[in-house]
């Protein structure tokens, strides 16, 4: 029947027998027919019957101020795996923090069924308002990863537990003065809460153990300079710091370089941890040296794409929030503290 052909060619014929599905695909190949070549007719038919128009296309809106590294690629691979297997195309849109967000033309034309979104949480409400105001998008589903956003489904890592595991590890090693960075973001706030919770579990006062440094990244200031300014200010106030909880693995090379310039060795003088597990500090065998929290980035991409497709096709009908587990990976960048740590004279101008 026409309905069976339609379902098989659009990857929706799960209850059609394999033999029938194979016959349909064989005839379609012989005739050179593909349903997407008749998209205009499909749209007209859907509108005539007052059914939602399915374009089999989603957009990935991503904001990135620096290099596009392994962190983003792992997540992207997970997304494309799911979309390729379900017959959906991906429109990729990157935005820089210093420029206004330009939505892709396919989205403006109404050719996008749903959106995957990752950006500065302060910018998300503005872009969401733009999406909801588009006549060709309206209330179509949006899935945000990395943070919880009202009105959107979300897929996040368990940042609170990740922060707890890192601080717990350092406390067990004997560290009682640890530096962390204050950043205006939901994931970092959850990790900071995890640090404090670990201190309380060890019966130590978080305000005595944890030293905060305000990380201020500005467009005209490199990440390296921003880290070095924060580190210099923190060590001036608290020269007895014995461990540093970096914001993520991408921050670690900047911190490690500054410590080296001060004559401080990792982990002999200062223990250093990351977050994400994307091999930013490696040895000659390409093995990571960094104690960090492994975030299932590939699975986050898979789950986000699966959730979006399920929302588009009606398999999921309610706003959904998923939190994926993380685990601690202990490597060579952490050790028991030296008492007391000594801040050496810088080797050069920092």
Structural description of this entry:
The protein has 350 residues and is of the alpha/beta class. It is 40% helix and 15% strand. The chain has helices spanning 2-9, 18-31, 39-48, 70-86, 105-108, 124-133, 159-173, 186-201, 206-209, 223-237, 252-261, 297-313, and strands at residues 57-63, 89-95, 114-118, 142-145, 153-157, 178-182, 210-214, 243-245, 271-273, 292-294, 321-324, 327-329. The protein has a 6-stranded parallel sheet, with helices on one face. Helix 4 packs parallel to helix 12 (297-313) and helix 7 runs parallel beside helix 8. It starts with a helix and ends in a 21-residue tail after the last strand. The relative contact order is 0.13. Residues 341-350 have low confidence and may be disordered.
What descriptors fit this protein?
single chain; 350 residues; alpha/beta; six-stranded parallel β-sheet; four-stranded parallel β-sheet; 12 helices; 12 strands; 40% helix; disordered C terminus
Helical residue percent band: 40-55%
- Measured by DSSP, the beta-strand proportion falls in 15-25%
Can you give the mean pLDDT?
Answer: 86
Number of helices: 12
Provide the succession of SSEs: HHHEHEHEHEEHEHHEHEHEEHEE
Give the neighbour order of strands across the main sheet: 2-1-3-4-5-11
How large, in whole angstroms, is the Cα Rg?
25 Å
Describe the largest sheet. Answer: 6 strands, parallel
Low-confidence stretches: 341-350
Give the overall shape.
Answer: elongated
Q: Helices and strands: which structural class?
A: alpha/beta
How far do the termini sit from each other?
A: 73 Å
Would you count the extended β strands for me? 12
